[in-house]
Structure formats: C-alpha cells, structure tokens
Write a structure and sequence with these properties.
InterPro entries: RESC11-like. Pfam families: RESC11. The chain has 734 residues and is mostly helical. Helix content is 60%, strand content 3%. The chain has a two-stranded antiparallel sheet. It has a two-stranded antiparallel ribbon with strand order 3-4. β3 and β4 form a beta hairpin. α21 runs parallel beside α23 and α27 crosses α29. The radius of gyration is 32 Å and the shape is globular.
Length: 734
C-alpha cells in the first residue's frame, strides 16, 4: 500500500488486481491495520491528530488522486463497515463477560438467567469462523478507539450512515475517556468530528469539557490548543460556560505572562503604525508584516491573525466581559497588527467589539484612523462598506466614547456609502468608486462594487438617529450622514419605480426620516412618500379578479421572474471582499439548480431587471453561471447540476462496495435539454433582451443569433429576422 505513492512501483494493472483482493480479504485484517489503511492523505497538514498516529506511520500511506477516486471511497466504506462489525462484536462479548462476572459474584443472580440458555459447547459449534470477531474484545483498545475516531473523521466521514458509526465509536470513547491523559487527544477528536460534519450529543461534549481541566494539570494546554477546543465547542453549540471560561482563562493567562516577559526585556512601543510608510512602500509593508507576525506568533502561539479574531468572536458570542478578555489585548496586540488583518478578520473583529459592547475610546479611535488611512492612500481593495457600517454601529452606542476623529469618519461614511446612490439610472455609466478595488485575475482587471440593500439603508438611518440623540455630539457634525440619507431616498425611489423593493422597507425608511426630523431640502424624501402613496392606487386589470394596491405591486412581474431576480440578488450580494474569497460553493450549486427550473426567457428577464436596478454590479463568477445556463438552454446542450441520489439509501447488504460507496454523495447529472416553444411576442422580447444583455458571451454568440434567426424565420417575423441576419453579418465581418 505504501508503494502507491510511486506510480513507477505499482502499475495500473497491478492496482486493479490489488484492491479487489484487499476488499475481499478485509476480514483477515486486524482493527489497528484497518485504521492504517484509512490513514489521512497528509498528516503533516493536520497537526491536531499527530498524537493519535504512530510517528513511523505518518505520511506512509498517500495514494495518488486517481487511485483515491477509483478505489478509495469504496475501500473506506468497506473498512468502516468492518470496523463497526468488530466493535459490535466486542460490545456483545464485554456485555456477556459482565453478566458472567456478576453471576459469579452474586449466586442469586443465576436465578434470573433464561431457562433454555445455549450451552458453551452449543455456542461454540455455531460460532463464526472469523477469528478476529471471536477475539474482538482484545482488538478494541483505548488507542484503537482514539485512532479510529480521528482517522475516520478526518478521512472517511461525511456520509449519511457515518452517524451511526460515530455513535458506536463515541460510546467506546466515553467508556475509555479516563484512559486519555493528554488534552490534545480530546481536542483532536472534536476536530475529527467537525471535519466529518457529525454533531455529537451534549453528553459527549460535557464529558470532554469535564475531562479537559483534569488532564490540563499535568499537560498544560497551549493557547493554540485552547483556541481549537473553543472553536470546535462553539461549532457544536456546546453551552457549558465553565468549559469556555476554563479555556479562555488558560489562553489569557499565558498571553499576559508573555506580554509581561516582553515588557521586562524591552520597552513596548505604544505608537500607532505609520500608515503612510506602510501603504506607500511595499518593501516596508512586507518587512513590517513579517516582524509583527513573528511577534504575534511568539506571544499567542497562533499561526494566523485570523485565529485571534475568531477567538475573540467566539468569546463575544457567549457574553464574555470585555474588561477581562478584550481590553488587555487591544494596544499591545491588535493595534500593531491592524494593517495586516485580512478583510474577513477585520469584519469579525468589528462584530466581536459590538458583541462585547466596548465603550473605550482607545478601542474605536485606532480603527477609525486605519479606515481613514486606507482611503487616503487609495487602498480600495481593503476598504469595504461593511466595515464602515459596523464601525458606525459601534459609535452609535449610547455609552461609547466618541473618538477625536469622528468628523473625518462621518465624511468617510458619506463618500463610501453614497456609492450605492450613483446606481439610480441604468442608462448612466457607473464610475469606479475610490474604494472599488482592482485585482488582476485570469480575465484581466476586474472591478467589484458593493451596493447597500434597503434593509442596510434603514439600519444606517437607525444609527444616525442614535448619534443625534448623543449629548456630546453637535448636530452639525452629523450633516454628512443627513446628506447620505437623501442619497438613500433617491436610491429607494429608483427601486420603487422598478417595483423591486419591499414596501415595508419604504414605510420603515419614511418613519425613520420623520423620527430624525430630516430637513429634506431637495424634496427627495417627500417625493418618495408620494410615490409610495401612489402604489395604493395601482391596478392590474389583466388578472382575474383584478388586483389593486399592494397586491398589484407585488404581482407586477411573473412569479418565476421575481424569484429568479431575488435569488440572483442573494448570490451576488455575498461578500467576497474584492475577490479575496470566492462565492460560497453551496450557494452556487443551489443557484445553478434553481436556473434549471426556469425558462431562458425568465432568466434573461431577471438579468435585465437586475442590470436596471444595480447597473454594473454583477460579479464575474455570477456572470459565468448565468452565461452557462443561458447558452445550455438556447443551444440544447443540456444542463449539468449536482444532485444527491436518494435511491441508494435502501440498498441491501449484498450490494457491491462500489454501489454502497455512492450513498448520499452528490453526483453530476446532465439534465436533457427541453425544446423551447416561443410565440411571436416571446421572440420579440427575447431578441430585445439579447441585444441589451450584460452577459457578453450571450450577446456576441453566433449560435444565439442563429437560434433567433431560425425562430424569426419560422414564425415569419420579417423585421426580427432582418435584425438577426444583420447581426450575423457584422460578426462575420469582424
């Protein structure tokens, strides 16, 4: 098996002969050897399970990807079933031995035994010829249970019937839990269960939480292991506050000790970072980042800055006091590392500060200075509207201290958040905002503009009202925010005219503007209120019976078009931090599956509505999904979607391993193409949508225009046929 790492040692023919024989003779393999066969691909990348694996075995079983795809899943399923069989046999033997020991200690217990119990000779005659099952109780040891839990969780989990397997192994783990003397063993089990997406019971988590302080007395947990334990327990929704308090105190104590040692060795610099030097000189930025990361790792034992912000976020979710767990680390740790925080880490930090309800001026002022420096030095790839909104929420707290640079921050809010108001008309070109970052990707330079939803606009208005109620803030300082509210009113007016905004957000926005006593010098808010009142007089006579008012407003578009539009909006608004992270994978799969249930006319209509509502904001990844769906529909190629086959749920025990391995696993399915039936009006609408389509590949595809020409010719649409032929001739000439 170790020779699989080198393709020159094992040929494909030998591989086809090896694995079937191995699957047939798994009954001859002991439990520890079964675990060796399912060893993790690369143990060096998973330091949390080094304790559970022998040092001589690490990295010895690393199959090529082709071997893993052909035989890995089926072999692991067979090994899992065999391990479960051994564990069940061991449980029966231990239960039988316990009854025998009880009968030997209490003679009266023999009266409760069954009258016609089989004798030992009869049991031996019908026993299984499997020698491993006959001695299963010797196979199951504390180390084997630990290795089985970690190895199967990290390598062979994530299938439906794995829940029953982990329940069985978990019962053994609880039985042997007092045999594990190192805290990293317990934390590694939590990591394996999280990787396998198996939710343990509260009893299981409570047992580990009670055991951790006991084993910590001899082997002290490092801050890194405490972080891993806390994150895993929070993921499993563990509600034992004593466990969180122990882990948090252990981490804080060690970090404070190292800070004190650093202060004794050399004086600590409390000055904020020199943003002008860092953001103008790339060499200085890289050198300072390397120096600060080395210092941060030495003080906290964390490998990345994101770990510390996630640790703070978990503490804030469970109501930890900021005076003890946040305030001591702001100046010595967070402020020097602010320029080097990734955008998601900065978002997590701001949300943690909100949950902590911090009220110190020294916490907000460095963040305000950092965001102002980002705008000053044109670092648009790191300045996000979500950061501005979160920091504005911190300043809107009634008991928070107002930073000295709050006026500059309100101006920053006006400049950054006003970008959404520049998208009022689809016919106007969208100018690149100063905070819109540019990143070089495969397709060249790409711009990403984040727009505010109506819900977020109402939230910002709430913060403006809270700032107006502060006695230590002059009303003149909030003038940039009042101008921003006028821009929001114009944006909502545009969405209301398109009938693409929920009326409850319009009503809420108007109530908030009345509460803040907005002067409305340009009359935009008044016009929005008049347009909202006009909705009550709206009427759709084509419906039976006719619709009036709000019902007519929401029924203006077809239900499939509206549903596709809002699913497109939901996917496109996912925060990618200017391509720092991709769109969520499950959201892309769900969106592609939803597109297969819609006609090409509905999809293009929804895309056209989105372009009119939010011009120039479609992300490149969303455009690719839409383009692929439209082309597959128009060219009759069929659409590829991921589907989970539920038919394999009821397979029999005699099914081959390959069939059993496909249980609950998503498969790529090619849905057959459907013939597109179009009326004359549909062809005219489709041609108009393709002409102004924001999807360039659809708009410039010869096959699409040929499809339109054939449809127009078949329906005898002379004008549309002439337009399609002219477009094809221009493409041929180009």
């Amino acid at each position: 098996m170790a020779a699989q790492r080198n393709p020159k040692l094992v040929s494909i023919a030998e591989e086809h002969a090896l694995f079937p024989v191995l699957q047939e003779r798994l009954d001859e393999v002991h439990l520890e050897q079964l675990i060796d066969l399912v060893a993790v691909q690369d143990h060096t990348a998973n330091p949390s399970i080094h304790f559970a694996l022998d040092a001589t075995r690490r990295g010895s079983l690393r199959w090529p990807p082709a071997t893993e795809a052909r035989y890995g899943a089926a072999l692991k399923d067979r090994i899992r079933d065999r391990m479960a069989q051994v564990l069940v046999a061991a449980a029966e033997q231990q239960q039988r031995q316990r009854r025998e020991d009880l009968a030997a200690e209490e003679p009266s217990a023999a009266d409760d035994a069954p009258i016609y119990a089989p004798t030992a000779a009869a049991a031996g005659s019908t026993a299984s010829p499997d020698a491993i099952l006959l001695n299963a109780s010797r196979e199951v040891t504390p180390s084997a249970v630990l290795r089985a839990m970690c190895t199967m969780g990290l390598s062979a989990g994530r299938r439906k019937r794995d829940v029953a397997f982990f329940s069985l192994v978990g019962s053994y783990f609880l039985f042997y839990i007092n045999q594990y003397k190192h805290p990293t063993e317990l934390i590694g089990v939590l990591t394996a269960l999280k990787r396998a997406k198996v939710l343990p019971s509260p009893k299981f988590l409570d047992a580990i939480g009670r055991r951790l302080p006991v084993v910590n007395k001899k082997h002290r947990l490092s801050p890194l292991w405490s972080y891993r334990a806390m994150v895993n327990l929070s993921y499993f929704k563990c509600n034992q506050m004593n466990t969180y308090r122990f882990l948090a105190d252990n981490t804080c104590t060690q970090i404070e000790e190292r800070l004190q040692e650093e202060a004794k060795q050399r004086p600590v610099e409390r000055a904020p970072p020199d943003y002008e030097t860092l953001f103008t000189d790339d060499r200085a930025f890289v050198a300072a980042k390397q120096q600060q990361l080395q210092r941060f790792t030495h003080l906290t034992s964390f490998d990345r800055l994101s770990m510390f912000t996630r640790w703070l976020h978990v503490l804030s979710l469970w109501g930890a006091p900021h005076q003890q767990y946040f305030r001591p680390f702001v100046q010595p740790l967070l402020v020097p590392c602010l320029p080097f925080l990734a955008p998601p880490s900065l978002t997590r930090l701001l949300r943690a500060m909100r949950n902590f309800r911090t009220s110190d001026r020294g916490n907000d002022e460095p963040l305000v200075g950092y965001l102002l420096a980002l705008e000053t030095h044109q670092r648009g790839d790191r300045l996000e509207p979500v950061h501005v909104v979160l920091l504005l929420r911190l300043l809107a707290q009634p008991d928070s201290a107002l930073p000295a640079n709050h006026k500059a921050f309100f101006g920053l809010c006006h400049r950054v958040l006003r970008q959404s108001a520049t998208l009022c008309a689809a016919s106007e070109p969208v100018a690149a905002a100063p905070h819109a970052g540019k990143h070089l990707r495969r397709g060249g330079l790409q711009q990403e503009v984040q727009v505010l939803r109506p819900r977020e606009m109402c939230t910002v208005c709430n913060y403006v009202i809270a700032l107006q109620e502060r006695s230590d803030l002059p009303l003149e300082d909030t003038q940039p925010l009042l101008d921003l509210v006028e821009a929001f009113a114009g944006r909502l007016m545009h969405l209301l005219e398109l009938k693409l905004v929920s009326l409850r957000y319009i009503d809420l926005f108007l109530d908030l503007t009345r509460a803040m006593q907005h002067p409305d010098e340009r009359g935009v808010i008044t016009q929005l209120g008049e347009t909202r009142c006009a909705v009550e007089r709206l009427e759709v006579g084509a419906a039976v019976p006719p619709l009036h008012g709000e019902e007519a407003y929401y029924a203006f578009y077809d239900v499939d078009v509206r549903d596709t539009f809002f699913k497109l909006l939901l996917l496109n608004e996912a925060t990618t931090y200017h391509h720092y992270r991709p769109l969520p994978g499950p959201a892309q799969v769900d969106f592609r599956l939803a597109l297969t249930a819609r006609s090409v006319l509905d999809v293009l209509t929804a895309v056209d509505l989105y372009e009119r509502a939010f011009p120039g904001t479609l992300k490149a990844a969303v455009k690719r999904l839409l383009t692929r769906s439209v082309l597959e529909k128009l060219l009759y190629k069929g659409e590829e979607v991921l589907e989970t086959d539920g038919s394999s749920e009821s397979h029999c025990d005699a099914a081959p391993p390959a069939a059993a391995g496909s249980e609950g696993r998503p498969e790529l399915v090619l849905r057959p193409p459907l013939f597109i039936w179009l009326t004359k009006d549909d062809v005219k609408q489709l041609l108009a949508l393709v002409e102004c389509c924001p999807l360039e590949r659809v708009r410039t595809s010869r096959d699409v225009w040929e499809f339109l020409r054939q449809k127009a010719e078949r329906l005898q649409l002379v004008e549309e046929q002439r337009l399609a032929v002219a477009q094809l001739q221009r493409m041929a000439a180009a």
